[in-house]
């Protein structure tokens, strides 16, 4: 019941944002709304995008490979890094006793850009530390140290070669 009340409030706030002064209202929205409790995730489309009912959520500050994106390992063999990122996010969410997602912004596709936590674990940080997502430095520096750590340890995508997700999307 509380979850649906939160969805209702977010829907009202989003309609308020898109009909009024976006900058002022966006500040209002991010200061006042978060989703917490046992959030029902209905779909995970890739390593940084998920759905909760009708809400489309994009994880803040990271960019994961697209679902069909391939990377190469240290031996030059292709592996499904996009699927690996998606499966890792699915596992993180499935094992979460509860999720708390704090609204940071709304993107141009009207997705809620949120920083989500499984208790004390930041889902974005976990993906970047595993080398299955990049810090989206264009928008935030919050995950830069996590990316540097994964790169140094040659984890995930950093073990071989890959195209940055934003470049891969442009080439498709």
Quick recap of the structure?
The chain has 172 residues and is of the alpha+beta class. It is built from six helices and eleven strands.
Topology:
Elements: H1 2-19, H2 22-32, E1 34-35, E2 43-46, E3 49-52, E4 55-59, E5 62-63, E6 71-72, E7 78-79, H3 81-94, E8 100-106, E9 112-118, E10 121-122, H4 123-129, E11 134-135, H5 144-153, H6 165-171
Parallel strand pairs: 4-9
Antiparallel strand pairs: 1-8, 2-3, 3-4, 5-11, 6-7, 8-9, 9-10
How would you describe this structure to a colleague?
The chain is built from six helices and eleven strands. The chain has 172 residues and is an alpha+beta fold. It has one domain: OB fold (Dihydrolipoamide Acetyltransferase, E2P) (Beta Barrel), CATH 2.40.50.90. Strands 1, 2, 3, 4, 8, 9 and 10 form a seven-stranded mixed β-sheet that branches. Helix 4 runs parallel beside helix 5. The chain is globular.
CATH architecture descriptor = Beta Barrel
Average pLDDT, all residues: 84
Q: What integer value in Å does the Rg equal?
A: 16 Å
Count of discrete alpha- or pi-helical segments spanning 4 or more residues: 6
CATH class: Mainly Beta
- Give the SSE order as H and E letters: HHEEEEEEEHEEEHEHH
Give the class from helix and strand content and strand pairing: alpha+beta
Roughly what percent helix? 25-40%
Which outline best applies?
globular
Query: What percentage of amino acids are in beta strands?
Result: 15-25%
User: Termini distance?
Assistant: 41 Å
**Total tally of structural domains:** 1
Give structural attributes.
172 residues; alpha+beta; OB fold (Dihydrolipoamide Acetyltransferase, E2P); 7-stranded mixed sheet; 11 strands; 39% helix; globular; disordered N terminus
């Amino acid at each position: 019941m509380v979850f649906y009340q939160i969805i209702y409030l977010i829907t009202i706030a989003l309609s308020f944002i898109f009909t009024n002064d976006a900058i002022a209202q966006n500040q209002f929205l991010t200061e006042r709304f978060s989703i917490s409790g046992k959030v029902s995730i209905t779909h995970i489309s890739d390593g940084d995008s998920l759905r909760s009912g009708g809400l489309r959520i994009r994880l803040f500050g990271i960019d994961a490979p697209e679902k069909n994106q391939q990377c190469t390992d240290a031996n030059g063999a292709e592996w499904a890094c996009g699927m690996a990122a998606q499966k890792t996010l699915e596992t993180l969410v499935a094992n979460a006793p509860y999720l708390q997602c704090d609204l940071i912004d709304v993107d141009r596709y009207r997705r809620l850009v949120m920083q989500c936590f499984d208790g004390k674990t930041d889902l974005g940080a976990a993906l970047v530390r595993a080398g299955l997502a990049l810090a989206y430095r264009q928008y935030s520096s919050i995950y830069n140290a996590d990316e540097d750590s994964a790169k140094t340890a040659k984890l995930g995508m950093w073990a071989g070669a890959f195209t940055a997700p934003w470049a891969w999307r442009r080439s498709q």
